[in-house]
Amino acid sequence: MSTMMQPTYLHRPFTLVSSKMDNYRTRSLTFAEKLDCQPGQYVMAWLPGVGEKPFSIAGDDPLQLMVVDVGPVSHSLHSVAEGQRVWIRGPLGQGYRLVGQRVLLAAGGYGVAPLYYLARKALAAGMSAEVCMGARSAEDVLWAERFQALGVPVRVMTEDGSMGERGLVTKATEAAIAAARPDSLCACGPLGMLEALDRQCEQLGVARQLSWEAHMRCGMGLCGSCELPAPQGEDGSLHRHSCQQPGWLACLDGPVSWKE
Amino acid sequence: MGSADLTCRLLGLEMKNPIVLASGIIGTSSSLFLRAAQVGVGAVTAKSCSLQPRAGHPNPVALDWGAGVINAIGLTNPGAEEEVHLLAEGRRILEPYGVPLIASIFAGTVEEFGQVAALIAQARPHLLEVNISCPNVADEFGTPFAAVCESAAAVTESVRRAVGKDLPIAVKLAPNVYNIGRIAAAVVEAGADAITAINTMPGMVIDAHARRPVLHNRTGGLSGMAIKPIALRCVAEIAHAVKVPIIGTGGVNTGEDAAEMILAGATAVGVGTAVWYRGVEALGTIAQELGAFMQAEGIRSLDEMRGQAIR
Ligand SMILES: Cc1cc2nc3c(=O)[nH]c(=O)nc-3n(C[C@H](O)[C@H](O)[C@H](O)COP(=O)(O)OP(=O)(O)OC[C@H]3O[C@@H](n4cnc5c(N)ncnc54)[C@H](O)[C@@H]3O)c2cc1C
Ligand SMILES: Cc1cc2nc3c(=O)[nH]c(=O)nc-3n(C[C@H](O)[C@H](O)[C@H](O)COP(=O)(O)O)c2cc1C
Ligand code: FES
């Protein structure tokens, strides 16, 4: 690389040092290098000849990603051997902010990845953290033991009751908010879960930071592909198909939205 | 001393400032048009559309290579029929802000340019930009329409015939041609009311570690600061060759960059890649910075500056 300028946003090769199966379709990838970034930001992971897709940052020093095998890029990332390289562009986007003393985390699926990184940063900043996890079934619950190892209390909800309590994650967050009011709720997970949490926080008057998934292409706020309706509706809902609200770019303005 | 006057007249359009959102940058929905209007842009150009919908290229489609951006989005768009609705809604939403809407079209053949133009005219945009210069598509022989006077003029005539006299048209030119002034003269002769220049500059970024081009499309269009001197030279040459207004576009990131574009002969100033460097707010900030620059330099209006550097 040129010594005159070091563009941060070119892809850089990262060497995989560990690739571990977390469950039947999820792997944690750990690299040799670190990345200067914030929890909630994401990277574009490029496998030359295969493709490039966004992934949340699960750890910064060294860089860690959690990858669910759903299609060509994630599948190929699963078969990268230790010692081989993955090309990383980023960090991109706006992450979570550390505010107040108490943070409540709510995770669905690979949403645990950015929240685990956030929990570590929050604890290091002297804050307290608690996590609520939602999953279909026990085999879909990810990294519960890693949060426990940090000393972060974990509430697990499964749709079939095979682990923790039966029900949706909102049941756990309601109980957690009632027990100890957080300064903000930070969540990452599927759309329906985020919308439900948004409504709940609106009702209970809790500030929330929600990380939205969108179809990302450029990751630079240029192509418009990742536009979501502004996530800050009066009634706490997404303004789907509404053109009365200015558009919101998940890749540049987000992925994390903020509402008091 | 009164503040500098930023109002800009482009053909029949009244703009509160000369900053135009360039085609292909967040011009994909009426809610994003609204966002641009709310941060203070002077006019908005929609993403280029074609007769049929296009998905575009797979990732990687864009990256910042250090002195600018390269992209090969692949002209993703919902097709002309859908675009008509988007533009009609966009126009209605921009109305209260006094922000004109510019539509943008492209096609693979001269005839198809006319067909798309006729459809898009139904949405009654304030101006129709004809993109003959996207480096990621070309005519059936692989030559961009913008590269040859005859094909550039043929496209312009086809569009002019399709939309009649009521809808003004701007033709968007490519920088990588031998004599951009002659191309400009040819399209004006063929009926163009304005020129937009420049589109992106074709380029390639190679990853030495991966030993291959980064973009999935291999090549793409360069934009941002790296192309500003190219854009200024092109605008100056066009300003010498023709009398019609120019939307000077390419590498404008600050108010001073915008001033340079006007000094080179531009009437309005297109801004695209600055959204990556400075956020969507750049569309308003650059206008404010231009006002502050003019104030500090004792320049009262855009007319006073226009083309001053090339006389
Ligand atoms: C900001 C952001 C952060 C992300 N973080 C992560 C992360 O940390 N870990 C991670 O694994 N993914 C993450 N994703 C999602 C990931 O980018 C996509 O799953 C990506 O499409 C995978 O690419 P692919 O080529 O493997 O599959 P694609 O071909 O893109 O997708 C294959 C199919 O799977 C579907 N699909 C996509 N995601 C899922 C899913 N989660 N479950 C079931 N089906 C799905 C798609 O709709 C498509 O039909 C994130 C996305 C965004 C926008
Ligand atoms: C991501 C991206 C997409 C673009 N798409 C289009 C397009 O659809 N039609 C078009 O005429 N120009 C398109 N352009 C070119 C811009 O409108 C503009 O001419 C060029 O980027 C130079 O201006 P800038 O340096 O301010 O970005 C695109 C540029 C970028 C960066
Ligand atoms: S992914 Fe292109 S604007 Fe967000």
Largest beta-sheet characterization of chain A? 7 strands, antiparallel
Q: CATH H-level name of chain B... which superfamily? A: Aldolase class I
Structural class, judged by helices and strands of chain A? alpha/beta
- CATH architecture type of the largest domain in chain A: 3-Layer(aba) Sandwich
What ligands can be seen in this structure?
flavin-adenine dinucleotide, flavin mononucleotide, FE2/S2 (inorganic) cluster
Structure, described:
The complex is a heterodimer of chains A (260) and B (311). Chain A is of the alpha/beta class and 260 residues long. Chain A has two domains: 12-92, Translation factors (Elongation Factor Tu (Ef-tu), domain 3); 102-259, Rossmann fold (3-Layer(aba) Sandwich), CATH 3.40.50.80. Chain A is built from five helices and 16 strands. In chain A, the strands form three sheets. Chain A has a seven-stranded antiparallel sheet with strand order 4-3-7-1-2-6-5. Chain A is globular, with a radius of gyration of 18 Å. Chain A starts with 11 loop residues before the first strand and ends with a strand. Mean pLDDT of chain A is 91; it is low at 1-6 and 233-243. Chain B is 35% helix and 19% strand. An eight-stranded parallel barrel of chain B has the order 3-4-7-8-9-10-15-16, surrounded by eight helices. In chain B, strands 5-6-14-11 form a four-stranded antiparallel sheet, with no helix packed on it. A two-stranded antiparallel sheet of chain B has the order 1-2. In chain B, β7, α3 and β8 form a beta-alpha-beta unit. At the A-B interface, β4 and β7 of A face α1 and β5 of B. Bound molecules: flavin-adenine dinucleotide, flavin mononucleotide and FE2/S2 (inorganic) cluster. Chain B: Catalyzes the conversion of dihydroorotate to orotate. Chain B: InterPro entries: Aldolase_TIM, DHO_dehydrogenase, DHOD_1B, Dihydroorotate_DH_1, Dihydroorotate_DH_1_2, Dihydroorotate_DH_cat, Dihydroorotate_DH_CS, Dihydroorotate_DH_I. Chain B: The active site is at residue 134.
